[in-house]
Amino acid sequence: MASDGRTGIQNQALGLAEAVARLTPADIAIKHVRWRPAFDRWPSGLKNLAMLAPGSFNPRDVTDWPDLWIATGRASLPLSAKVRDWSGGKTFTVQTQDPRWRNDAYDLIVAPAHDGLSGDNVFEIIGSPHRITPPRLAEAAPAFADRIAALPHPRVTVMIGGKSKAFDLPEAHAAALADQISAAVQAANGSLLLTFSRRTPEAAKAVMTQRLSALPGWIWDGGGDNPLFAMLDAADHVLVTEDSANMATEAASTGKPVHILPMVALKPAGKFARLHADLAAHGAARPFDGSLESWAYAPLDETERAARAVLEAMAARG
Length: 318
Prior knowledge:
The protein is of the alpha/beta class. It has helices at 7-23, 77-80, 83-86, 134-140, 145-148, 171-187, 202-212, 228-234, 245-252, 271-282, 302-317; strands spanning 2-3, 31-32, 68-72, 92-96, 108-112, 122-125, 155-160, 167-168, 191-196, 217-219, 237-241, 258-261, 264-265, 285-287.
């Protein structure tokens, strides 16, 4: 599998590869595709192998192409589009997300339904592939038991995103969200488990930490091992800001109530509104209304559904 190595991007390809490996014997090799800074933003069609950064995966070094290539992200596109030719047709190529370039060059595109992509080689799923499974969450829990096990129920895991092209999290809005979250946790006599993303503005992070730190629980400051999987395992409720398709999809894979936290919109919600509608139709997510209402649904498992589609398509090609 190939990506530029960023966690949020890589986890899509790796999650799908791991799901395939759970269904059929497979070895997974992680390859990072990086371009020299001068060429990184160039259009995919203008890039060539001489522009790859030192240390990047380079197809020139491949002596035995794999049966399956799964890739994610813009950096991988110039290579993914040529893998079939380089491998002499041996390698089945899968690209996640909407490539927006040479969509006919890949054997299969695993695309979010909210993107509205269509084509004979397109397989739509709710959200994006990811690595979260119930066994993986349970495996992560013991390492953080000293911070979580004694916390009172209901435990409320909160995943905070940040500024993007579509949304913002200014300090005043972050403060208001923190006050709503605090009131809900206190009313339920529960506890808080909170993580921020790399995109969370520092002012928002500071004000939310200040207003929520008195609650029983743990606000992760980014130091040490990431406790997100353990926090999701421990959660009775999951609150997620509306700016991240990945976070919402991961939360819905737990089978626990997912409450969508509003942000300041910078443009029409568009695909995010469609994603949240899909999650609501599945029974997973509802807008956060200041309370911690519980409900049940079948955990969302779109990554395995996509993995089965990959294997079926490979078998059909022969």
